[in-house]
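Support request from a user on the community tier.

User writes: "When I paste my structure tokens into the form, the page sometimes reloads and wipes my input. The last time it worked, I copied everything first. Here is what I submitted, just in case something in the input itself triggers the reload:"
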């Protein structure tokens, strides 16, 4: 890794804060994802991290054809990019159900699927499919211990699967399992918990097969468990942060992805002899986690003290920093950071060559 890979040669006209992305590094991360997965057929990357058409296209150029997303806007962006297979990994409720139907009708070249974890949602979606006279593709969302969404493995989940299997308006694709609660830093501990969780899922799939279910795909995992799940057969893995990476996930040493998104910021004040203020407030970088918010790539080594809407205060006792100085930083959490920017600046060979729109940043594109 070149020590100056993130620098921009001419920053005079570069507005701060800005989010910079580096296509060569993104392509490297895509290639590593495919290699780890053993090919594209078992890979279903999530686009929630970037929400950018050009990054989708880089994946498509590498052969990726299955995708996962979290919002109707992200799903529509994938439809606009002519993705072949898209899983909306958020159970639609209320008005989202009608939007999902509109999505299918507007982009017939893309096969859309989504999740259900209860009888009520299944019946409502079945009714909509019956009205439109087409078949909906659905996965059952399994609660594998995260306790955020999903139905627990057991008789109720089996009854739901069999009921959906018998519904002429529904094609059950299989099981969706997100194990975002497994975040052990040590690969040994993470592998043990991951394997224990998967054993129950695999046993449930075998149970369904013994009940006459011939097809039951499994889409599972996120980025922290990707290096473990990608070694399994007959599953699809769905990493997302792996495309841009961040300082928070860099702690997983078994994952060799490159940081490909950097915050560009400036010193805007020096309120005391010990503190400096950067224009990296809540509106510019994800702030839902404890400090630090970023990892500075340039010589800013002090403790991050406080943050408000527009400001980040950092302890810095040296005299080397002046007001107006440029700094570069990796966000601790890239996914919600990207959503704070309408577009990102594209950097190649230390030069800004253009910008990419964060097209699915908003909750709605057209539908």
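"...and here is what came back when it finally went through:"
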């Amino acid at each position: 890794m070149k020590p100056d890979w993130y620098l921009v040669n001419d920053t005079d006209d570069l507005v701060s804060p800005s989010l910079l992305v580096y296509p060569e590094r993104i392509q490297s991360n895509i290639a590593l994802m495919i290699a780890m997965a053993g090919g594209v057929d078992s890979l279903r990357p999530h686009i929630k991290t970037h929400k950018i058409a050009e990054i989708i296209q880089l994946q498509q150029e590498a052969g990726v054809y299955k995708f996962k997303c979290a919002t109707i806007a992200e799903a529509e962006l994938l439809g606009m990019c002519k993705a072949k297979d898209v899983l909306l990994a958020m159970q639609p409720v209320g008005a989202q159900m009608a939007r999902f139907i509109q999505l299918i009708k507007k982009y017939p070249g893309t096969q859309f699927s989504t999740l259900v974890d209860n009888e009520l949602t299944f019946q409502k979606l079945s009714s909509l499919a019956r009205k439109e006279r087409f078949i909906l593709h659905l996965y059952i969302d399994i609660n594998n211990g995260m306790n955020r969404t999903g139905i627990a493995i057991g008789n109720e989940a089996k009854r739901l699967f069999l009921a959906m299997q018998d519904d002429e308006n529904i094609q059950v694709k299989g099981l969706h399992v997100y194990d975002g609660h497994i975040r052990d830093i040590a690969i040994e501990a993470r592998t043990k918990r991951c394997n224990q969780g998967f054993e129950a899922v695999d046993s449930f799939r075998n149970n369904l097969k013994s009940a006459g279910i011939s097809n039951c795909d499994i889409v599972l995992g996120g980025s922290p468990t990707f290096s473990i799940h990608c070694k399994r057969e007959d599953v699809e893995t769905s990493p997302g942060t792996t495309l841009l990476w961040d300082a928070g996930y860099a702690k997983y040493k078994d994952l060799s992805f490159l940081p490909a998104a950097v915050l560009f910021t400036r010193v805007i004040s020096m309120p005391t002899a010990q503190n400096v203020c950067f224009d990296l407030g809540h509106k510019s970088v994800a702030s839902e986690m404890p400090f630090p918010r970023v990892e500075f790539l340039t010589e800013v080594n002090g403790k991050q003290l406080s943050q408000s809407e527009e400001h980040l205060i950092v302890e810095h006792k040296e005299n080397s920093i002046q007001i107006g100085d440029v700094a570069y930083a990796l966000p601790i959490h890239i996914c919600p950071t990207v959503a704070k920017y309408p577009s990102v600046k594209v950097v190649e060979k230390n030069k800004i060559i253009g910008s990419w729109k964060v097209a699915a940043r908003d909750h709605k594109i057209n539908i």
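Agent notes: The reload is a front-end session timeout and is unrelated to the input. The chain has nine helices and 17 strands. The first helix runs from residue 23 to 37. Escalated to web team.
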